[in-house]
Amino acid sequence: MRHLFPDTSSVRQWWDDANRHDLLHKPFQKYLKVVDPELVEEDGRSKLVAYAKWDMAVDFQQRGSRFPLWHADMPGQDCDAFFARLDSERLKIMGDKSHIYLDMLATHPDHRRRGAASLLVSWGCKIADEGGLDAYVDASKDGAPLYEKFGFVDRSDPTATIEGVSQMARSWK
């Protein structure tokens, strides 16, 4: 991921702008955060320890473009190829089934294995179950065990493996 999204101030600003755009213009995307009220940032806000972005657009085509134009610091062709492969595999696995999609999940390294990510995944699974929907995530290999705890199953095609990624689906129960 560092190859696709180098850690530069310009790319960080690109992320801020992309997320702000989605918050303002894509009401079907839900951003959630977990904060630690006992840890306070310099500006007085509670420290962010984890966040998630759930895409609730049950129609895969409804979401439109996932990202804005790539920043010049990013390898645009590599980004296009990588995300096109993810989308292609998701379509193979989910087909035209209505589902929600866990687009992003991150936990600050100092706060891992304390339940914050589980809260965020649990929220989406509850929404999916209430709506009678399946759920999907492109998981990192390290993150896959978390999703398995919530009923996600690795559905990756062994002949089309994407390095470091497990395509995981969860069927509505």
Q: Can you describe this structure?
A:
The protein is of the alpha+beta class and 173 residues long. It has one domain (9-170): 3-Layer(aba) Sandwich (Aminopeptidase), CATH 3.40.630.30. 34% of the residues lie in helices and 27% in strands. The chain has four helices and six strands. The protein has helices at 9-25, 76-94, 116-131, 144-149, and strands at residues 29-40, 46-55, 99-107, 134-140, 153-154, 165-170. A six-stranded mixed beta sheet has the order 1-2-3-4-6-5, sandwiched between helices. A hairpin with a 5-residue loop joins β1 and β2 (46-55). The protein is globular. The relative contact order is 0.15. The model has no long low-confidence stretch (mean pLDDT 91).
How are the SSEs ordered, and which strands pair?
Elements: H1 9-25, E1 29-40, E2 46-55, H2 76-94, E3 99-107, H3 116-131, E4 134-140, H4 144-149, E5 153-154, E6 165-170
CATH class: Alpha Beta
The helix count comes to 4
Structural class: alpha+beta
Helix amount: 25-40%
If classified by CATH, what would the architecture be? 3-Layer(aba) Sandwich
Provide a compact summary of the structure.
Helices cover 34% and strands 27% of the residues. The chain is of the alpha+beta class.
